[in-house]
């Protein structure tokens, strides 16, 4: 596996884990309003943030969680399908 393929796989699976472990932060959260703890490689999280798949807040180094954007939910669902992993719902 090339380094680029490895990095892409890590990015995809990190997004899937963020999605699968996501939770609704409040009872008023909508169906795509997911929050997840950021216990993953910060470089990967920063890349996902740059791609607007997650939002880390105004001070990313101070937050312990991320919000998964609507684009992030769709991306994660596509990766689940790619790897044959059942969806959370």
Relevant terms:
89 residues, mainly alpha, globular
Summary of the model, kept short:
The chain is mainly alpha-helical and 89 residues long. The protein is built from three helices and three strands.
Q: How would you describe this structure to a colleague?
A:
The protein is mainly alpha-helical. It has 3 helices and 3 strands; from the N terminus they run H-E-H-E-E-H. It has helices spanning 3-20, 42-50, 70-83; strands at 34-37, 54-55, 65-68. It has a 3-stranded antiparallel beta sheet. Helix 1 (3-20) crosses helix 2 (42-50) and helix 1 crosses helix 3 (70-83). The longest helix is centred in the N-terminal third of the chain and has 18 residues, at 3-20. The model has no long low-confidence stretch (mean pLDDT 90).
How much helical structure, as a percent, in the residues? Answer: 40-55%
Radius of gyration: 13 Å
The profile of the biggest β sheet is: 3 strands, antiparallel
Please provide the ordered H/E string of secondary-structure elements.
Answer: HEHEEH
Give the SSE map.
Layout lengths: L2 H18 L13 E4 L4 H9 L3 E2 L9 E4 L1 H14 L6
Antiparallel strand pairs: 1-3, 2-3
Helix pairs in contact: 1-2, 1-3
């Amino acid at each position: 596996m090339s380094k680029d393929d490895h990095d892409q796989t890590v990015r995809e699976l990190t997004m899937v884990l963020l999605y699968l472990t996501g939770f609704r932060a409040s009872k008023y959260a909508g169906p795509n309003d997911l929050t997840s703890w950021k216990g993953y490689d910060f470089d990967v999280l920063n890349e996902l943030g740059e791609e607007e798949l997650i939002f880390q807040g105004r001070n990313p180094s101070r937050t312990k969680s991320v919000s998964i954007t609507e684009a992030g939910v769709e991306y994660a669902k596509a990766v689940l399908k790619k790897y044959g992993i059942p969806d959370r719902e």
